[in-house]
Amino acid sequence: MLNFKKYIKILPIMAFFLLIIGAYEINNNEINTDFYYLEENVSNNSEFVSNGIRMNYISKEKVDDELLIIKENFIKNLGENIDIKDNEISYKDSYKEITAIVWKDKIDTKVQITYVNNRRTANTIQLKKEIEQIQNIAAKNIKYFKFVKVKIIEEQKQNILDVLNNKIEKNTLEELSINNGSSAKAILNDGEKINFSFTHYNSDEYLILGTPVIFVTY
Length: 218
Known about the structure:
This is TATA-box binding protein. The protein has 218 residues and is of the alpha+beta class. The chain has five helices and eleven strands.
């Protein structure tokens, strides 16, 4: 059972490092559904802040050619108002920010596309569909990361804790303390790894859920 009263003093950067250890990515044929249930539940029982998805993949194209493909897809789906700097292409408006980075390692051309959204009406399922319109259709080894962030409504907090408890596989929860709250990692009933954190800023409390890791600062 979740128990955020049992704290271990640890620096935030160490907490984040520990949460990443042992994490795995979700592949393109994911069948996990527990995160989407949690996303909907916490969004309905708190004040939605943001959600997002990150896609990593490998391309057979050269870096410049891959950048051209992604640029054309940005323009086709988002219009001409994009920023290009070196190996990075980005788009930003009042409710979403999308950034694509392309680089070459010793063997492959690699791509990372990150989409952060602040519309309550768009869940990570929709974001995934949108981000797939930007990727190279010949992408290989596609992997996804997802997150949702909400501001806690105190009267609904226990309901959120109960739902988390019900979706977490028994004996997989590991908790620790950070300087402004608590962090945890666990395995959901469908086998997907999840990280989550309750944090305090001024008088407000926030919850962020991420699979398999939280890829944004919290």
